[in-house]
Amino acid sequence: MRASPLNKIMEEEETSIDMTPMLDVVFIMLIFFIVTASFVKEAGIDVNRPDAPTAVKKERANILIAISDAGEIWIDKRRIDIRAVQANVERLKAENPQGSVVIQADKKADVETLIKVMDASRAAGAYDVSIAAND
């Protein structure tokens, strides 16, 4: 039995391109970009930073610590006690060894609290500690 020209045309129209390999590549690229992206971490509160005309913008500041005017210490949007600063900085430093510590202290924050946070950060192994200011 011979195939009619009409059957041959219908068979050609039913053929389609398999999209599975293209979707696999797209998902692999999506996973790659998600894994390699660096996410911005925030300390948890907004502070009124002091002005400093000589302030320099610091790149790669991954460990942010905020000190409010009431003396509250915030890391990763969590309020922590002064005794827990060293452990938290050690954990964050282990996650990102090249990260530096930036302390965002309010203008009216107690200097003693600031010094304790700096000492705890250095005791945790973070020797690149900076204080945030407005330029």
From TrEMBL:
The chain crosses the membrane at residues 21-40. One of its GO terms (biological process) is protein transport. One of its GO terms (molecular function) is transmembrane transporter activity. GO terms for cellular component: plasma membrane. Keywords: Cell membrane, Membrane, Protein transport, Transmembrane, Transmembrane helix, Transport. Its main location: membrane. It is found in: Cell membrane. The keyword Ribosomal protein does not apply. It is a single-pass membrane protein; Single-pass type II membrane protein. Belongs to the ExbD/TolR family. This is Biopolymer transport protein. It comes from Catenovulum agarivorans DS-2.
